[in-house]
Design goal:
Layout (H helix, E strand, L loop, with lengths): L5 H22 L9 H31 L5 H26 L7 H31 L6 E3 L3 H15 L11 H23 L4 E3 L1 H6 L5 H16 L1 H43 L1
Antiparallel strand pairs: 1-2
Helix pairs in contact: 1-2, 1-3, 2-3, 2-5, 3-4, 3-5, 4-6, 5-6, 5-9, 8-9
């Protein structure tokens, strides 16, 4: 503890500051009415963008630490604490604002609060499990066990950006329709990604697979095209990328498991007929 890496530590602290700024922005979102609607759209967008900024800081601090060979147990513990703020507390608090604000039944607000608390608990458990796995496997793997907490936070952040109305230029929905859709999907989607975080489904490390090592020239062209798409349609692309990444993997494994269950009885029956003859 006498010497610490300055630049990676500052980047890690930038992660925490973005998480705190996201909470502060979400706290300024008022109950929906005509007078507060313009301000709400601004703070929804700002809160979601701060979580995305925290993800960038989180990616940069680890990269800089490995590049400068200054990775340390202190940096790993600090990174975990900052991730708990930016990818645990901030998205859970933002979810309370994304859910239905004018629900007639009080139990809907209570259910939303329970889902937000469950999301926070699952994010903390996911981070703790990742620390244990990182200690046991210092070289890392190409796949995560369970949905990474930054990706789960990105799912909710992208909904906030959609709710802010930036993606309305690419959509034919009215602001009222976007509000209804995000209010309905936010609790259900948050519950799904919370459970996926503590699952053991293997999720690929996209950045490591896309940017690590030497690849064919065609791979470089594909990466450039993806980057151009994200840059041009970033407000809508964020929601597509995060939610596809979060939900396609479990859907794929569910289909594979169902297909295997259907083929096993057929294979067993064919074997019995063969033995009888």
């Amino acid at each position: 503890m006498k010497r610490i890496a300055i630049i990676p530590t500052l980047l890690t602290l930038g992660n925490a500051v973005c998480g705190f700024a996201s909470i502060a922005s979400a706290s300024k979102i008022l109950p929906a009415d005509t007078s507060s609607a313009p301000a709400n759209t601004y703070y929804f967008t700002l809160s979601g963008c701060f979580i995305i900024g925290a993800m960038l800081f989180d990616a940069l601090d680890g990269y800089v630490a490995r590049l400068s060979r200054t990775a340390s147990p202190f940096g790993m513990e600090l990174d975990s604490l900052c991730d708990a703020i930016s990818f645990g507390v901030a998205p859970a608090f933002l979810l309370l604002r994304l859910g239905p604000a004018a629900a007639p039944a009080p139990w809907l607000h209570q259910a939303l609060a329970v889902i937000a608390a469950l999301y926070l608990v699952c994010a903390l458990l996911r981070l703790a499990r990742f620390n244990v796995q990182a200690t046991a496997e210092p070289n890392g793997t190409k796949r995560f066990r369970g949905l990474p907490s930054p990706a789960a936070a990105g799912c909710l952040a992208s909904l906030a950006i959609l709710r802010g109305g930036l993606a309305q230029r690419w959509l034919t929905w009215t602001p009222e329709q976007i509000r209804v859709i995000t209010e309905a999907w936010a609790p259900l989607g948050a519950l799904a990604v919370a459970l996926l975080m503590v699952s053991r489904l293997p999720y690929p490390h996209l950045l490591k697979q896309m940017l690590h090592g030497r690849r064919h020239f065609r791979h470089l062209v594909e990466v450039v095209l993806v980057a151009a798409f994200l840059f041009l349609f970033w407000d809508l692309a964020l929601a597509l990328v995060f939610w596809i990444y979060a939900l396609v993997i479990p859907a794929y494994y569910a289909l594979v498991r169902g297909f295997r269950r259907q083929t096993r009885p057929v294979a067993a029956t064919g074997l019995d007929d063969f033995l009888q003859h």
